[in-house]
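User: Reviewer 2 asked us to show a designed sequence for the structure in our supplementary figure. I'm pasting the structure tokens here. Could you produce the per-position amino acids so we can include them in the response letter?
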């Protein structure tokens, strides 16, 4: 039997919301996969600043398969780490049970309307496939900074997996675009 459960839980959304929790659970021929992602405030080491971290853990049959840790530290401006619901999914690329967990998040410490970093990862068998770039702002249907729509950069593992690379590049515009009302 194969089944996949994806859950996203968000806490109260304040300007510095740090209560994000996402979970995934699926069964395949290797066993039971469980993934937990969370964003939490962590201690800052500088006065009048704040810090956030995203942590992730993927297990297979209760054993660690991969971990994720990233942070925005000692920020005295506006900061965020946002898990992108559209980028959190489990996909089968070939129909042969080759499940990939995909996740995406953006992060920044900024004092204005500057693009933050966008990170889009896939995991399979403990290996990370990475695509990194920056946010693309759109206001009234037009790019806010048309000259700055940079192409994301793929990591070595992703470059060597053309089918996954095409899938992630196809989803990149939805993941990296920020609509401003």
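Assistant: Here is a per-position design you can include in the supplement:
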């Amino acid at each position: 039997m194969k089944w996949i459960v994806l859950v996203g839980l968000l806490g109260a959304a304040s300007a510095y919301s740090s209560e994000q929790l996402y979970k995934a659970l699926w069964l395949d021929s290797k066993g039971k996969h469980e993934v937990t992602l969370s964003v939490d405030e962590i201690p800052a080491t500088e006065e009048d600043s704040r810090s956030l971290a995203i942590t992730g853990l993927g297990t297979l049959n209760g054993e660690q398969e991969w971990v994720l840790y990233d942070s925005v530290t000692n920020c005295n401006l506006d900061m965020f780490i946002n898990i992108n619901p559209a980028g959190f999914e489990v996909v089968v690329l070939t129909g042969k049970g080759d499940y990939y967990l995909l996740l995406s998040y953006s992060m920044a410490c900024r004092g204005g309307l500057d693009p933050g970093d966008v990170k889009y990862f896939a995991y399979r068998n403990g290996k990370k496939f990475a695509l990194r770039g920056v946010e693309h702002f759109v206001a009234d249907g037009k790019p806010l900074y048309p000259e700055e729509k940079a192409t994301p950069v793929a990591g070595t593992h992703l470059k060597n997996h053309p089918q996954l690379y095409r899938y992630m590049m196809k989803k990149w515009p939805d993941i990296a675009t920020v609509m401003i009302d």
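For the response letter, you might also mention the following. The CA atoms of residues 30 and 60 lie 8 Å apart. Confidence is low (pLDDT under 50) at residues 10-18.
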